[in-house]
């Protein structure tokens, strides 16, 4: 299995933050989803099956490329 040693962290700033994993390949599809409540933290990494992650809701996202706040009110 191919994985990256690069982890990313998602901390929910409100209840109901959705984290959705998207597949690799010619057809991008949803393959996994999690719902986080306020102050829950998810630590994840990309794999041979996961090429992208979509975050819906207010969350603090930390990566090796920097930190960002996903705020739907902006």
CATH architecture identity: Sandwich
Largest sheet: 4 strands, antiparallel
Q: Stretches where pLDDT falls below 50 for ≥5 residues? A: none
How do the strands of the widest beta sheet line up side by side?
A: 4-1-6-7
What is the CATH H-level superfamily? Answer: TRAP-like
The string of secondary-structure elements, in order, is EEEEEEE
The count of DSSP E runs of length 2 or more, i.e. the number of strands, is 7
Helices and strands in order, then pairings?
Layout: E1 3-12, E2 17-23, E3 30-36, E4 41-47, E5 50-56, E6 59-63, E7 66-70
Antiparallel strand pairs: 1-4, 1-6, 2-3, 2-5, 6-7
Overview of the molecule:
With 74 residues, this protein is an all-beta fold. It has one domain (3-69): Sandwich (Immunoglobulin-like), CATH 2.60.40.50. The protein contains no helices and seven strands. It has strands at 3-12, 17-23, 30-36, 41-47, 50-56, 59-63, 66-70. The strands form two sheets. Strands 4-1-6-7 form a four-stranded antiparallel beta sheet, with no helix packed on it. A three-stranded antiparallel beta sheet has the order 3-2-5, with no helix packed on it. Strand 2 (17-23) and strand 3 form a beta hairpin. It is globular and about 35 Å long. The model has no long low-confidence stretch (mean pLDDT 87).
């Amino acid at each position: 299995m191919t994985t990256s040693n690069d982890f990313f962290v998602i901390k929910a700033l409100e209840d109901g933050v959705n984290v959705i994993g998207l597949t690799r390949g010619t057809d991008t599809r949803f393959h996994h989803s999690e719902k986080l409540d306020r102050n829950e933290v998810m630590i994840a990494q990309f794999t041979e099956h996961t090429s992208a992650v979509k975050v819906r809701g207010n969350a603090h996202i930390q990566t090796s490329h920097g930190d960002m706040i996903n705020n739907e009110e902006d």
